Amino acid sequence: MREDGPNDSLANFLIDAADRLSGATAPGRAWAVANELAQDVGVTAINVGCFCDHAIAPLWARSSTSEAWQQEYFGNGYAAVDPFLIDRLKGGPPATYEAGVLRRDAARDPREWEMNHGLRAAGYSLLVCKTFTECFGAGQRLVVLATDTQPADFLASGAGTALSVLGALISAHVPPPDREDNAGMVAFGYELLTPRERDVLCLRAHGMSTGRIAETLGLAEVTVRKHFSSARSKMGANTRDQALVLALLRGQLDL
Description:
This protein is of the alpha+beta class. The protein folds into 2 domains: 6-186, Transcription factor LuxR-like, autoinducer-binding domain (Beta-Lactamase, 2-Layer Sandwich), CATH 3.30.450.80; 195-249, Winged helix-like DNA-binding domain superfamily/Winged helix DNA-binding domain (Arc Repressor Mutant, subunit A), CATH 1.10.10. It is 46% helix and 13% strand. The protein has helices spanning 6-22, 29-40, 67-75, 83-86, 110-121, 151-156, 160-173, 195-205, 210-217, 221-235, 240-249; strands at residues 45-51, 60-63, 96-98, 126-133, 140-147, 185-186. A 6-stranded antiparallel β-sheet has the order 3-4-5-1-2-6, with helices on one face. Helix 1 (6-22) packs antiparallel against helix 2, helix 2 (29-40) runs antiparallel to helix 7 (160-173) and helix 9 packs across helix 10 (221-235). The longest helix has 17 residues, at 6-22. Mean pLDDT is 89; it is low at 1-6.
């Protein structure tokens, strides 16, 4: 009987990955399975973000990087120099990003050097980025896979194909965070809506006026307006209709 070769092992892994992610339908399960599969191929952490075409910040994002790294990232303002965010609008993010190698005199901003070396100190030596078209062609999803393995060793291991297909599977199956499934949520300028805030936006989506929404929910109109105001604030929106659209794109509403 023929023994499995490298290609057979890869095929078996990808079949297993597809089956496990397809079956991960319980709240939070897809994110958990994605991280388990990533660890199987030497990936330390995964990052997933959904972007509109011309926006720097993602509509939503999830990350399994350490809490300490996320505090450093946001506390030091690294998002303003993050190559995956900035270069995405300049032809595409880097396919790979090696940490701990940027010279101070080559950095355009001190934070570039700090981020590059901070990643290495946090245990993320190499980041591999995969870009995918969002459903219906509306924007992009980025999947960034981080490893603590030395770049030359990791890339020489033949992990490229596995990472590419695994990235596609993660992009297809990992949903935006919500109240039942918020593990790994990274808040880029928005918060999760309460059930009542979701109610008023859903009824707005069905064309109801403030008065009709109040009657339907058994609330005073002033209370409905407060829920709209809170929803706008949480979504970072200027109007209730913009809040509605952003909530839909972020997976916050089930119409």
